[in-house]
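Long-time lurker, first post. I've been practising inverse folding by hand and with some scripts of my own, and I keep getting stuck on stretches where the structure tokens seem ambiguous. Below is the full token string for one chain I'm working on. Before anyone asks, I'm not after the true native sequence, just a reasonable design that respects the backbone. If someone could post their per-position residues I'd love to compare against what I wrote down in my notebook.
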């Protein structure tokens, strides 16, 4: 019985180790295949017709102002006012009348003097994958400039590349240090994105939901 327990324990250790290597390997793949598409200096960003802001809440779960929200708005407005894009799609969750990420982003852009005619709301961008697929399938874009934080750019670009979009990203921050919790969450989010694309074919599922 003791030997059986030892064998099971060794098997579990090996499995955890193998999964860990796989997850880290996928993260390396996602980053290394997209890092040359990420821009940090507004002067170096190539011109594009449309920017896509990926949604996040205006406030944190504790009710405080969300830094990531305001950084994305500032970055998108900067792109517009520097003539790097002429239109902005704000894509996010619109789960209830009390929670509307696209509307919050729309209002925040207006406050930064982006005209209403230059903003389109995508109220069904529930996940990064949804936003990327809808940018092509619903809004007809073939080339986009993604606006989000550095850590999120890689996963977003990887999905865009998979979809055949000509995409670049303008990082709304400058590779700021992440909390351990957020870093771990993003590591597994990248792994989940690969599973969604190559195993579960979530792209087809999102496309079917638009019909």
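-- Answer (accepted) --
I ran through it position by position. Result:
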């Amino acid at each position: 019985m003791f030997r059986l327990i030892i064998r099971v324990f060794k098997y579990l250790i090996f499995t955890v180790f193998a999964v860990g290597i796989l997850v880290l390997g996928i993260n390396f793949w996602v980053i290394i295949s997209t890092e040359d598409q990420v821009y940090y200096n507004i002067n170096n960003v190539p011109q594009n017709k449309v920017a896509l802001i990926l949604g996040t809440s205006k406030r944190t779960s504790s009710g405080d102002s969300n830094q990531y929200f305001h950084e994305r708005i500032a970055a998108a407005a900067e792109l517009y006012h520097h003539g790097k894009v002429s239109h902005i799609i704000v894509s996010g969750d619109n789960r209830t009348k009390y929670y509307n990420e696209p509307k919050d982003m729309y209002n925040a852009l207006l406050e930064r003097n982006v005209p209403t005619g230059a903003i389109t709301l995508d109220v069904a961008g529930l996940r990064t994958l949804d936003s990327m697929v809808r940018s092509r399938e619903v809004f007809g874009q073939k080339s986009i400039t993604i606006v989000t934080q550095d850590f999120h750019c890689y996963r977003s670009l990887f999905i865009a590349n998979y979809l055949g979009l000509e995409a670049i990203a303008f990082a709304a921050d400058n590779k700021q240090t992440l909390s351990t919790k957020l870093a771990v969450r993003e590591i597994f989010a990248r792994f989940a994105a690969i599973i969604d694309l190559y195993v579960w074919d979530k792209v087809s599922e999102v496309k079917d939901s638009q019909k």
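A couple of notes from the structure itself: Residues 2-32 form the longest helix (31 residues). The chain has one domain: 2-209. Happy to go over any region you disagree with.
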